[in-house]
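Sequence only, no structure available. Ideas?
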Amino acid sequence: MEFDSLIQQGWARHDSATEAVTTELETHRSLADAVEKARRFCALANHTIGEHLADWPRAEALLASVLEPLADDALSLGNWAVARYMAGQTAAALATETRAASLAESALASVIRTRMLLASALLGSGRQPESAELYGAALALARSVDDVSPFARAVAVVSNNLASELLDRASRTSEEAELMAEAACAAREFWLQAGTWVHAERADYLLARVLNALERFDEGLDCAQRGLETIRSHGGGQPVDEAFLELAAAEAARGLNQPTQSAEALARADVLAGAFEGEGLRKWFAGERAKVV
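Reply:
I predicted one. Tokens follow.
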């Protein structure tokens, strides 16, 4: 097996074939024989083995076997620190995080990134109160720094993932709802600093869905319309994103008791979806559309 296939297939199958992907990672660990490869390998291993399989000691042992022969790398060490903490190796985790910070261009950026990853791991492992506390502290620290460029993308990605995971839950406590809204807002805030206009309009889609789920429909509609305007101001070219933003707008308008506006947005979404290629994409759209109607 080639390394790229291992990682790509792993991300595609980790949810439905977690044990199989874990076995493949352990079997082919020798393919992660360079720093760049190790970074990708460690991220997949932590998510698959730690969060999905709920076996952090196994994830930590795998990361140790991959990283110990390689030169130290701040990003890989950050992932290893997360695995060590989640496996109960608190002192080793702090030592590894410190090593990562000493190697990074910005020690503070390294710490923020690692703490964000740890907050995500805690949430994925069902430890929501600890995740919320750590995420809030790391986010406050990130917002206190003038130059966010070294870590803005990491904050955006983790915030996006936290909000998405909470949004996908069938029910949420009031604390989880608060965390979901905070994370969705932070995702957009930091994507505006770290990403492209595509990241911005997708952040608006996530934020619109979150606000709709919280029945803050006027704000949800504003976000959906802002995302659509971003796409149009850049000449279009994102029909899939546009279709889903129209669905979010339709849902918000329905929540605001604006049936005509909701129907019009839904019709625009249907036209865009009519050109979708791929059964998976069409099924995804149909599932989201059913929630609106």
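The chain has three domains: 1-103, 107-195, 197-204+216-293.
Hope that gets you unstuck.
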